[in-house]
Design brief:
This protein has 5 helices and 2 strands, in the order βααβααα. It has 74 residues and is mainly alpha-helical. The protein has a two-stranded antiparallel sheet.
């Protein structure tokens, strides 16, 4: 598995924008810290699944880009 520092990062805004007002208050603070650096791909997967969505539904092909380019170990 890839270490946290080496994980590809994605913008957090697509996840943040999916939150309704209740969830934005409840988990928004946990996601805000990723605004400057991006969210690690495995954390993005976690939060997308918590919202009932596959990460591809949120990020499209960008979610798999590093995997296709051989930049992650699975």
């Amino acid at each position: 598995m890839t270490s946290r520092e080496q994980q590809p990062r994605l913008p957090v805004e697509p996840i943040f924008n999916l939150l309704d007002s209740t969830n934005r208050r409840a988990i928004g603070d946990k996601l805000r810290r990723y605004r400057a650096t991006g969210i690690p791909i495995y954390r993005a997967d976690y939060w997308c699944c918590k919202l009932g969505l596959h990460p591809w539904m949120v990020y499209g092909d960008a979610y798999f880009q590093d995997l296709w380019e051989g930049k992650t170990d699975v």
